[in-house]
Amino acid sequence: MQSRCLRFVPEDGMKVIAQGRVAVYEPRGEYQLVLDYLEPLGIGALALAFEQLKRKLAAQGLFDPSIKKPLPYLPQRVAVITSPTGAAIRDFLRVIRRRFSNLEIIIVPVKVQGEGAAAEIASALNLVNRSLNVDVVVLTRGGGSLEDLWAFNEEAVALAIRSSRVPVVSAVGHEVDLTISDLVADLRAPTPSAAAELLVVEKEMLKERLCDMRGRLLSGMTGTLFRLQQRMGSVVRRMRDPRRRLADLWLRLDERRTRLARAADSMIRGRKNRLQYERRALFFNSPVHRISLLRQRISFHARSMGLQASGRLKEYRMRLSLAAARLKDVNPASILAKGFSITRKLPEGVILKRASDVEPGAKISVTLTRGELECLVERVK
Q1: What integer best gives the mean pLDDT of the chain?
Q2: SS3 at position 379
């Protein structure tokens, strides 16, 4: 038996009713059971498959109330995914026309039972989210057996409902019928008619509420206007004459203008005095003035240095004259000019101070004031 045709998943220890034939696998000599039909003992295959899928989706969190989206209070456009020829759409439209005829209904036709119905429903949900600008999606069909409603128990439909960005209302079968789509949807309605009643409020009731709210609003506005008029009258009575207010303001303005003028004059005088002081300080510290002072100091120091140099020159000249006279007195030429001479022993050139330093026959040199004599010693005394 092909496992993809099974509605439920066989588990270990499960008691089942099977119908098929025995076959032999000759290469290994093994017997095989080829089943044509299989269902759980004591419960239908669809009921078991429903419970298994319910447990699986619950474990994934698809039934969590916290992730369900709220429905808008007064939707303008509604997409209805259903069979266009079934009784469900007629009941839905009849209630909508009676309660609120202005609502725009877009019917998305699909198969609601049989082979391929689940794929069409999931595709229609994706189409509505992708291409239609609606406020609510209603997934509905009339009553039937568990097998008739099985398209709404498929996992593909449950995942498409949960991934929808538009709130989804599930109204499948009668009130006693419960499908996976009812558990996953953002709101479950017992019947298609109940879905229409839950989706929109009755137009007459809405009109009555609007009239009541308008009356209360007018009453509140009238009372508020009356209180405001009373407050305005009280304020007007307490309000001073604007002309007196303006006169007082003009007086205060003149006083402040006078004070401002005085303060400005005082500030200008202070700034002028400071400017004069800064100007004098700038003059005394200006490069031209400092250069003039330096020139005066240089001239004074030049005269002082000239006087000091003249005095020093006179002093040095006197000292030079004295030194020259002293030098003249000790100059050998001056001594020689007085008749003295200098005698040297030749060839050594040693000055002779005693006659005993030479012997007869020695050569000597005698230096006079002018000229020099070479002599031969004949006798030593």
Answers
A1: 81
A2: coil
Q: Under CATH, which number does the domain 67-204 receive?
A: 3.40.50.10550
Number of Cβ within a 10 Å radius of residue 96: 22
* pLDDT surpassing 80 at residue 159: yes
3-state secondary structure of 290: helix
Instruction: Assign 147 to helix, strand or coil.
Output: coil
- Check if the beta carbon of residue 375 is closer than 8 Å to that of residue 344: no
CA–CA distance, 328 with 338 (Å, rounded to integer):
13
Can you give the pLDDT at residue 3?
A: 52
Q: Where in the chain are the domains? A: 3-42, 67-204, 335-376
Residue 232 has pLDDT above 60, yes or no: yes
Of 80 and 287, the structure prediction assigns the larger pLDDT to 80
Backbone angles phi, psi at 4, to 5 degrees: -70, -15
46 vs 51: CA distance, rounded Å:
9
Contact at 8 Å (CB) between 166 and 142? no
Per-residue model confidence as pLDDT tens digits over 114-141? 888 899 999 999 999 998 889 999 998 8
Q: Residue 354 has which token pair?
A: 């005693």
